[in-house]
Structures are given as C-alpha cells and as structure tokens.
Amino acid sequence: MTPRRFDAVLFDCDGVLVDSEPITNGVLRDMLEELGWNLSAQECMRIFVGKAVKDERALIEAHTGQPLTEDWMVRFRERRNLGLMHGVQPISGALHAVVQLHERFQGRIACASGADRFKVELQLEKCGLMPYFKGRIFSGHETPRSKPAPDVYLAAAQALGVQPARCVVVEDTATGVMAGVSAGAVVLGYSPNEAGHDAPQVLRSAGAGYVFTDMAQLADLIAAAR
To answer: Across the beta sheet with 109-113, what order do the strands follow?
Structure first.
C-alpha cells in the first residue's frame, strides 16, 4: 500500500469553512467611514481580507488621523458578531468535505484561524461545523504572532502530535498561504470566483502547491497527493 502523504488537515476558517468575509468587511467598511476613511466594499476586501484588524492599527490611524482605541475595537467586534449571528453561512461544500476528512483522518483535523476565538467558535457553531473541530480550534490572537507568521499552524500541528511537513493546510488568502508555507506544511489554495478570496495567481505566488475552486474537490485532491 502506498504510504499516506499527510497525517492531518489544518483549515483556515474565514473564506474556507464559513462565508463570513462580506459580513465582517461590511461592518468594518461602515465603521471606517464613520472615522473618515471612505472605502468601497471591494477596496475594503482587498486591503483587509486575511488580516486581523488589530494588526492594521497603523494603517487605519494613518488614513483616519485618529487613534484606534480599544473601545473602538470592542464596538467593532460587537457589531461584527451581531452580523455573523444573523447571516453567516458555511462555504458551499465545506461541511461535506469536513465530514469526509474528519472520518478519513480519524479526527486529526483542526481549525487554525487568524481571528479571535469567540468569532471562530461562533461561526463554527452557526454553520454546523463545531462537532468536527471541538477541542482543535486555534486562534492567532493566542499566539505570539499572527498570520503570515506560522505560529497558529505550528500550534495546531503540535497539539495534534503531527509534524508540520505531514500536514496539509487549506487557505484562501496570500497571508494564510504564507503562514502555512512558513510552518513547513503543504498548502492548498481555495480560490472560487467570488469576492473575498485571493486570485489563483496570488495564492500560487505566495506558495500554494495547488489551487482549486470547489470544496467538493478537496478530499480527492488530498487523497491524490501521495
């Protein structure tokens, strides 16, 4: 029998498991406009998708001329969470792919996100994904460095007892791809023809070993990588 190429699958959350980026970035765009920085929905996506808002403090302050206070961050998270509670949906095909891979890898899958834990867990619960990730959720807010640093993926691999090189990472932004590559994992880039995901060439340039467009392809892609 041909040895299995991977021992675990590590998923990003936003844009890979849940279709949250239009909601989160809509709230962010509105709140930045209130501070005096006017962006279109497309511009806001281009600048902020794949990044933690807290890590873009200097950029926001430069464009608004105002300090990004902790009170503002609290209000942003409250409005974002309310929007997600009412509207977040799973990425098409993601639940089926997760069920397949959870069974195939005997539970050795994890969600490794750059977002705060509350947001990640809220979304997984709302989208019916929590049973497959409970106890294996990792937040970049709880590691020394956020993506594109590899910390959150290294933490996930260590917790699963798997070498990073034996992990496949599933990402949809260049920031996340760079994090997976830096961790030493093989990265598959998800790039459907929808707003909120980086283009195939952007993911390949960041180091994605393969780019796919449909979550229904994921389990077969991983099985074929031997």
So the answer is: 137-139, 109-113, 8-11, 167-171, 186-190, 210-212
The helix (H) or strand (E) run that includes residue 201 is helix 200-206
Read off the amino acid at residue 158. Q
Closest CA relative to residue 213, chosen from 188, 191, 189: 191
Integer Cα distance of 189 and 206 in angstroms: 10
Count other Cβ atoms within 10 Å, centred on residue 187.
27
Strand partners, 210: 188
Q: What is the DSSP string of 69-105?
A: -HHHHHHHHHHHHHHHHHH--BPTTHHHHHHHHHHHT
Per-residue pLDDT of the chain (226 residues; tens, 9 = 90+): 344 589 999 999 999 999 998 998 899 999 999 999 999 988 998 888 877 888 899 999 999 998 989 999 999 999 999 999 999 999 999 999 999 999 999 999 999 999 999 999 999 999 999 999 999 999 999 999 999 999 999 999 999 999 999 999 999 999 999 999 999 999 999 999 887 789 999 999 999 999 999 999 999 999 987 5
Interacting residues of 96 by C-beta distance below 8 A, sequence separation 6+: 215, 216
